[in-house]
Structures are given as C-alpha cells and as structure tokens.
Amino acid sequence: MGIEDSSYRKKMRKTVFTIAKTVIKTAIVCILYVILSQVLAPLSPLIPGLQQMLQTFIIVYVALMIVSNLTSGTVFQHIFGAARCGFVMAYLIVSLNSGIFDYTFGSVSLMVDLRMFLVIVMMLEILGLAKSVILAIDFMSQKAELIRIQ
What we know:
By secondary structure, the chain is mainly α.
C-alpha cells in the first residue's frame, strides 16, 4: 500500500505542478495581450479588423499552448507544439495578406511591404516545427528503448 500511495502522490504532485505551470504561462500571455491591445487601440480606426485578428490569434495560440502544456510528458506535447507553429505560419500568411499591405486614406494611398519580416518569422517557425518533429522522434525512440529493455 505504501508503494502505491507514494506513486499516486508523485503523479498528483506532477499533475498539480503541470497545471500550475500552465496557468502561469496562460496568465502571462493574457497580460501581454491586454497590454498589447491597449497599445494598439489607437491604430484600430486606421486598420479595420485589427482587434478581431489579434483576439482570434491569441485565443487559438493560448488554446494550443494549454493543450501542449497539459500533455507534457507524452508525444502529444510535441504534436501540439508542431500544430502551434503551423498555426502561426498559416495565420501570418493569411492575416498579412502575403506580406503586402495596401491602405487608402482618403486621397493618400499607402503600400507597405512586409515580405522580409514574413520570411524571417516563417524561418523561425519552421525551426520551431523542425524542433517539435525531432523531439517527437526522440521521445518515441526513448519509449521504444524502454520497451525493448524491459
């Protein structure tokens, strides 16, 4: 009974720690979102739909972050990490209109080329995606070694 109780306590302690870590990370992201939305509030009349784009991005990103953190210690952690990278890449391409902004303010037309920024962010996200895939392969190989040893 003592061994089972100790194992149960370890699992509960690990679960509580994982949940606490997830809550802290989520709170930090939400605080950053509130600060960012206050900073970007004056730009809302100039860029239609900015608040909605930001809210949608934060909601999906936080949901994937929560699921990824709650599944830590499993292969699903790496799968959801890769999904988060894929979401960021797809969302940036769609929301940034492939890197070219064209706005008209009355008689003034403004065109902004953000393709270099988009390329840099895409390369960073591809690195994150590759990291998640390599970590998933490493996780599965470690599990295979443990099964073979036992």
